[in-house]
């Protein structure tokens, strides 16, 4: 028995290979048989589904099912289709499984054998059953009505024996082919075994085992990779460690090194170069490999090289940690530079999201408490927040959109972080029931979308939690870790300070805007001398001290004023309000422009002196003002300025000039008197007052701004409203750095027929004649109802001018929105209203004037003074409109009668 056994490895290999070939052929035959049967079964199922669906969707199916006798209509159709389709049966049934058709007519009306519930739900169902025809492979499909409901079912199928019969007919062919293959494989195995016998030189099993053990000990027991490359660049040998380190495919040996997939190009170049290398570090994928390479033909061996490879990835790991630290530092630096570039709460939140997307998280959302957006601190412990910023690598995410008000439930990380002020890490969102309790449906969509990990960090500044920043991860499969949590906390801590600064600025800005709007005129007063349009635009950085006003004066005159307080914020707005109030008060004195600015300058100086030295708020020094008074009767305009830019004058023909007014110092400096200039304006001229923010800009010289203003105003037919719009479009940048006040006034003239003027002889007897002339003038104007009051007022004023004033005396009546009675003389003596006692014979004249007139007063001129009184037009509801019957008789002075 021992002599019959093979004595060499070649013989053993021959027997083993023959056995393997036989097993492979048998396995192939078995696989082919099983595959053939599987293909037959699949073909039967596919044919059954196709036939059933075709018949179920055939035209007229719905009509046949709704006919009085569906079996009569459908039975012949199913039999014809069955024969042509090559199936064993086609059965039509109702939704209860009762057959309408069957290849065996006696079974019509019986219950279908099979499962119909999936098809009643609208699905196609296939199965193998033991039916009336035997073991069958059948498919059941639904028949739908026009509204999509299932109204019937159709089943088609084949008997199993018809399916397997095909396989049985193919089996002889398969066996014959397998036998031929076995014969060819056996012959090939014999040839290979003969060649192997020559190569092993007839070594026995013991010798071959010893050689293999030595080979295995050398190549696979060491923790260094060994690679042998032939002189033609082919890989001859690679041990297990080399394959692991170089990620070589199983069939790498025998292939060209340059063609090996996955091998790093640098490593391939070194192995093919044939040069000697000593501890040369080569990157290969995510590893750093130290390579030693020597030639194999130094002692007469075959040409080629042998290389040993060691893994030095720890060095790369240290380098990676250093690179990660560098990236984190860069991110923190960029966050410090990129977050908080503006004092806008929403923009700061958006900057936090934009800086951290992709570099730290795939999606970032910022939720802030609603009061924070308006500049207030969060009130209460409710976790209701508004989504303020959303940023991510894609726009089709299922996260809550921006602007959504979200009421976080207590179990969510956001609510816990908002309440405790501590960051929350959720490594796996799919296993976080507290988070998904907020919105289960949306939470399922988020997880399905691929977002799997979350860090929620409260935005806490100065001990107050303002909101929560959420960092979501989707692309990187690893969840967030504790190291990521520390980085997120540091990023959010910096952003929280910026958001809090923006919140406080928003609050102060809102207070300043509220104050300024309450101080600026909300509507211009009614007057007839000027057609006025105005604009005020605050700077991007906040409200400032620019202001304007239109003040009606006696005698149909109007005062125009524009001012500018240097600076921005609450102090500038408050200073502007004080100046505007002071101008209103001084204008009631009816002072010339230069005197009014002088008093305003004294007031500002006193305010600056009253400022506490310890107060960090500066005074109003640096305020400028331009004040003008326009008289529609004389069409003359008196102007004076205190450090303010020159106004623009647009003539009716469109010519634009900047009148050369005397330059006065800014308000508050004191010591230098102001001067005024007087211009005569044609009717239809436009006066343009503005602040320096309109013409001055960092990007252009002031002369360029004035030329742009000149070009924008050079349109003769523009209304004041159109002029404002044109000027702002031409001169203002997209984001102005200073606030702008603009006032455009087009002049009107009071018609000559609405002005009556008389010179009064300087003796008491002249009073009666002037009274009569005034009454006649009022009758010409159709104001007979005012005759009595005007007559009494003129009598008193003219009498006082003759008694206490100086010649010459002039009387003027103006008919505008009311009737103004003016008496001028060359005396600067000021009349005083007093209340006469019962026994006094005089002293009731000015009291009578005050009772009859809507208002009265005195203004001083270069030649003396003018005493004036205004009467409202009839129907205005004043005492004068009702006549003198409402006055007590004892107020009349003896001279008036």
UniProtKB/TrEMBL annotation:
This is SpoIIE family protein phosphatase. Residues 334-509 form the GAF domain. Pfam families: GAF, HATPase_c_2, sCache_3_2, SpoIIE. The lineage of its organism: Bacteria, Bacillati, Actinomycetota, Actinomycetes, Kitasatosporales. It is a multi-pass membrane protein. SUPFAM superfamilies: ATPase domain of HSP90 chaperone/DNA topoisomerase II/histidine kinase, GAF domain-like, PP2C-like, PYP-like sensor domain (PAS domain), Sensory domain-like. It is found in: Cell membrane. Keywords: ATP-binding, Cell membrane, Hydrolase, Kinase, Membrane, Nucleotide-binding, Phosphoprotein, Transferase, Transmembrane, Transmembrane helix, Two-component regulatory system. Residues 527-747 form the PPM-type phosphatase domain. InterPro entries: Bact_Sigma-Reg (IPR052016), GAF (IPR003018), GAF-like_dom_sf (IPR029016), HATPase_C_sf (IPR036890), HATPase_dom (IPR003594), PAS-like_dom_sf (IPR035965), PPM-type-like_dom_sf (IPR036457), PPM-type_phosphatase-like_dom (IPR001932). Its main location: membrane. It comes from Streptomyces ficellus.
